[in-house]
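Our consortium's second objective concerns turning raw sequence data into structural hypotheses that experimental partners can test. To show how far this objective has progressed, the report includes one record in full. It was chosen at random from the queue rather than selected for favorable results. The single chain below, 215 residues long, was entered without modification.
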Amino acid sequence: MRELAAQATQENILRAATKIFAKDGYAGGRIEQISKAAKSHDRMIYYYFGSKEELFIAVIEDTYRRFNEAESKLVLNMNDPVEDLKILVCFMWTYYQQHPEFITLLNSENLHRGKHISKSLRAREYSSQAISLLDRVLAQGAELGVFRPDVQARDIYLMSAALAYFYVSNRFTLSAFLGEDLEAQASLAHWQEFITSAVIRQVSITTDRAAAGAS
């Protein structure tokens, strides 16, 4: 019973810290704010997490963990690598939209040049999980002769993340700059199609051959 209560307290602190740090950043997020939001006490945060920095690292780790957990629930065919790749790209795009805290937390950490997450012992573990699934899909596509064999999962992950992340992270300023509502459903649907098409073209062996023939 005591163990369950301890787990609940830690979970409440993590959820509260995620909201506070996502809203105010690492510098602006205060321990007293977090303990109040978690309906706990400052001393419990220090007891379970040690310091504000360690709590922030735990929040980032938990954010990556939840991303991987959601991705692991995807149902892939593994006999249709093109469709599977579309599913993975669309998942990332949709997840960023549904979890804006993911974007703001990473923005905050990048302002600090990644000095907190670099101390994490789990960051590489989480990235390996995310890329390994993509790697299996690309390998299957190469085996079936539809994807180029020289494509690296890391590069496709970065390409997909960049196209999705930048749009979601900067949608408000870009809407003003471009004079159009990038949050409109038609705009979101268009960009999803653009991302998936761009990724498929990048890895497609038929596109690669066509480019070679044109040159």
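The partners drew two points from this record. The radius of gyration is 20 Å. The chain is about 80% helix and 0% strand. Both points have been shared with the crystallography group to help prioritize constructs.
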